[in-house]
């Protein structure tokens, strides 16, 4: 793993709290100082600063920042100060309960995290909203897509690193028989294989599928499914094949076309900055022949741009 944000070596929470206070006092706000501090501290260090800030000044750092900032710059700052699991829970809730359901975001959050993290997210979701993640998915979705998302929300994927070529061949043949090899589509077979097999085994299954049929699993999914269900399954397959390239593609798509999908852009950069954002940058450049920081600078502006570019490094 290669993060872009590392623990700040000369970290002094009281000093940072005072600098943030100074940045917000008086006429105007010193946004550059806020960027310099919060982009160079880990989430744990930022939350320590927030606690110290309250102790020193009797005020809430998040409330003070909200009163000084606005727009997507504020959104990034709030995301940086949120505890990581809490942030993912809020993003899931927004994806489920907003205008229409953002299925690709639900797939992203549930597929990039490991089992333990998915269970933490699901448990915190229930605590926060007094409704289970499964119940909310079921109330918002139906059919194949509902079953896919519920399966992902259980956090019960095989996480072993062993591979079994014979089993992969059997699964690849089962996928063919359930899709291109029959009239109609047996969606349950796709669901069972895509939601239970380990990442390394899934990649082997996809390779065997191509060996059997002469074309990719993505082409089969494109032929057998449609609409948001197809998009969700393709996203899951992409993540199983290569999580890093999948996230690079999500960033690219967030900045393509008219407007920017800011929530996706912010979520991936903030949440992966302490995990593997350096690798995502490299994958982005390899796939799109463009530097990620430069692409961000072309798409957005002002302090919003400065903060994201600082996090990207």
Question: Any chance you could write out the topology, listing elements then pairs?
Answer:
Blueprint: H1 13-24, H2 31-38, H3 43-57, H4 61-68, H5 71-81, H6 84-97, H7 103-112, H8 115-129, H9 133-140, H10 143-153, H11 165-178, H12 187-196, H13 199-213, H14 217-224, H15 227-241, H16 243-254, H17 262-272, H18 277-288, H19 292-299, H20 302-312
Q: How would the global form be characterised?
A: elongated
Spell the H/E element sequence: HHHHHHHHHHHHHHHHHHHH
Please indicate the percent range of residues in DSSP E strands (runs of 2 or more): under 5%
Structural class: mainly alpha
What level of helicity do the residues show?
Answer: over 70%
CATH uppermost class of the largest domain:
Mainly Alpha
| CATH topology type of the largest domain | Annexin V, domain 1
Q: How does this model look, in words?
A:
There is one protein chain. The chain has four domains: 69 residues, Annexin V, domain 1; 70 residues, Annexin V, domain 1 (Orthogonal Bundle), CATH 1.10.220.10; 77 residues, Annexin V, domain 1; 62 residues, Annexin (Annexin V, domain 1), CATH 1.10.220.10. 73% of the residues lie in helices and 0% in strands. The chain is built from 20 helices and no strands. It is elongated, with a radius of gyration of 21 Å.
């Amino acid at each position: 793993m290669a993060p872009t944000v590392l623990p700040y070596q000369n970290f002094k929470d009281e000093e940072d709290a005072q600098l943030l206070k100074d940045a917000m006092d008086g006429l105007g706000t010193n946004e550059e100082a806020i960027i310099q501090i919060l982009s160079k501290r880990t989430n744990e260090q930022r939350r320590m600063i927030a606690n110290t800030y309250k102790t020193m000044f009797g005020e809430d750092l998040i409330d003070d920042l909200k009163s000084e900032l606005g727009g997507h710059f504020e959104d990034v700052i709030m995301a940086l100060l949120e505890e990581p699991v809490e942030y993912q829970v809020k993003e899931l809730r927004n994806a489920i309960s907003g205008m229409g359901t953002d299925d690709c975001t639900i797939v992203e959050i549930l597929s990039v995290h490991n089992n333990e993290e998915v269970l933490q997210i699901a448990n915190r979701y229930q605590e926060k909203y007094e409704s289970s993640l499964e119940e909310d998915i079921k109330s918002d979705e139906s059919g194949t897509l509902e079953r896919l998302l519920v399966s992902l929300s259980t956090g019960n994927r095989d996480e072993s690193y062993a591979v079994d070529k014979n089993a992969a061949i059997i699964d690849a043949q089962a996928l063919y028989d359930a899709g291109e090899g029959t009239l109609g589509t047996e969606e349950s077979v796709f669901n069972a294989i895509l939601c239970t097999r380990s990442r390394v085994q899934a990649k082997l299954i996809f390779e065997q599928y191509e060996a059997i049929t002469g074309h990719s699993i993505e082409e089969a999914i494109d032929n057998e499914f449609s609409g948001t269900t197809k998009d969700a399954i393709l996203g899951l397959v992409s993540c199983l094949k290569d999580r890093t390239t999948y996230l690079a593609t999500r960033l690219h798509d967030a900045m393509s076309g008219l407007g920017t999908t800011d929530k996706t852009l912010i979520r991936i950069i903030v949440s992966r900055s302490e995990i593997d954002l350096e690798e995502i940058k490299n994958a982005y450049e390899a796939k799109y022949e463009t530097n990620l920081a430069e692409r961000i600078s072309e798409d957005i502006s002002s302090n919003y741009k400065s903060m994201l570019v600082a996090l990207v490094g």
